[in-house]
């Protein structure tokens, strides 16, 4: 099922300099929901950039704000009366034009979605329409953005299916979603997302609902497609193994804010933020020589109630390195060495002690 | 050394649970007019034992039959064929009433702690429900004492007893589910993906709780999971299922050091390792698990197996012993399969 990339479809990345070109520049993105119990800040002053061709992993647990961040970029958060989104999301398109996605009107935004920025979700079954053939669903994504005949769109749909490794693509066009396995459905979702050669793909837990064997296939496929198309990927996940596998850079979120950011190797081999350290220590390893049956180093407690965040560092109540000063004020995102940023006022002392 | 002693005592005692050639087939399709029905062999010819206090891990892809097997063992279904012995007694054909006195000794923990708690019941009612059914003779004070004890075992205090499930986080709800399972002091627990729905940092808490529970109460467990790392951490032995059959079963360390079935190797290989400096050559399985309605002839794994031979199509390989307690359903002895990579710890 591992498809070879055909000659059809995607344009190759322009040149080597593409690797440093910024396609998304997010500044001070905040998302606040109005709830019966007062304002709930789901995303708090998040800033980051995404470069062409790279994979940025957004890591966090439920409630960390990672999914809301990606929805806010796509302007897919619920209606404005209940949700306040502030900050800016500068998107640079293929011609080098810069636009703030948060300022676009709905029509202009609709032309961006699925065309220049695409998204895939965790549960492919709920993202596909059960009463339409998958060929028509992919073709719709093509005709919505491009002036092509229905026939040409179907031909393109077959090419796309072939590209995402679905064999016998022409015949599969007439299949309904329920006739496909979970892995196949996710391939269809990817085909749809890639229909218009997007510059950016936002993948929100795309492999979480899949078996490990199928997850490995999908990760491999995404890597191949990225190499072929040069698209940038924001990969939202809670699975640290997947992060290690796919990411160039990592952004760890906790309680709506970035707590650590950097290149994947330093972040995962020498994490500086106690939360990142705790996450990495709490996963059991597939190690044949590990003793086993020993308690894991779990992080105690639960994520804070977003309606009543702690006054200082959000992780302080669960942190084993906590000092009174941590609970006094929210720490800033500090620059650390090797291009890393960390939100912990004690990171130097903690890092020193662990060396 | 302790392990050697444990195995010695285990060998003398009869097993707590014994499954003999279990078959759980389900009819599919067909209608009133069209009588011919196909059968899905969700569980086929599965045999194993679980000793007192032992934790057997059960892994496999979705559709491999692991949940069906767990439910069948606790007699939540009527078996098509085979025999289940629990505490030495054949429970395969027992009816509802005959099963009732046995039920408290065998309990189930579900994956989703949101769906498996009644939102209209308080924690006291939820955890106390098994007592209310099984021990109606107990007075309120005695019942509350047992509830408090069960809650304490899972790390919750009685001050939560009058709250409702929605007031708890996912991890706390799973603790409530475990307390409900423990209150009847079972000797056997089937835990079906008990940590899969939880966040990473909470998963470790619940895994630790299960380690603690088994150490203190020496409860035997069938631990169903797709997470091989968790299974490796918690279980004494591991059984790997594929299309309704056990394809490999071995003591955990044996299995991790030298897997003997290509499917086990592929499962190990597919697990992403949380260490970006590890670059491995991978065995990526092609395609999906075949339809259980039309499994390949001979070895069911042959359609995806990288080491397939023409002989593999001939007959279903038997689950043969290759080493002390290590059995595999693969005919190839010449393979040296890859063991999992742990990465940095």
Provide a concise account of the structure shown.
In chain A, 31% of the residues lie in helices and 22% in strands. Chain A contains twelve helices and twelve strands. Chain A has an eight-stranded mixed sheet, with helices on both faces.
Summary tags:
heterodimer, A: alpha/beta, 8-stranded mixed sheet, 4-stranded antiparallel sheet, 12 helices, 12 strands, 31% helix, B: alpha/beta, 10 helices, globular, disordered N terminus
Q: Which structural class do the helices and strands of chain B define?
A: alpha/beta
| Global geometry of chain A | globular
Major sheet description of chain B: 8 strands, mixed
Quaternary organisation: heterodimer
Low-confidence stretches of chain B: 1-10
What's the total count of β strands of chain A?
Answer: 12
User: In terms of per-residue confidence, which ranges of chain A show pLDDT below 50 for 5 or more consecutive residues?
Assistant: 1-18
Instruction: Please write the string of helix (H) and strand (E) elements of chain A.
Output: EEEHEEHEHHHHHEHEHEEHHEEH
Give helix % range of chain A: 25-40%
* Percent range for β-strand residues of chain A: 15-25%
Residues in helices of chain B, as a percent range? 25-40%
How would you describe this protein?
- The complex is a heterodimer of chains A (355) and B (345).
- Residues 1-18 of chain A have low confidence and may be disordered.
- In chain A, helix 4 (134-145) crosses helix 5 (150-163).
- Chain A has twelve helices and twelve strands.
- In chain A, the strands form two sheets. In chain A, strands 6-7-8-3-9-10-12-11 form an eight-stranded mixed β-sheet, sandwiched between helices.
- In chain A, strand 1 and strand 2 form a beta hairpin.
- With 355 residues, chain A is an alpha/beta fold.
- Chain A is globular, with a radius of gyration of 21 Å.
- By secondary structure, chain B is α/β, with parallel strands linked by helices.
- Chain B is 30% helix and 21% strand.
- Chain B has an eight-stranded mixed β-sheet with strand order 6-7-8-3-9-10-12-11, with helices on both faces. Chain B has a four-stranded antiparallel β-sheet with strand order 2-1-4-5.
- Residues 1-10 of chain B have low confidence and may be disordered.
- Classes of the chains: A alpha/beta (355), B alpha/beta (345).
- The interface between A and B is large, with 53 and 55 residues.
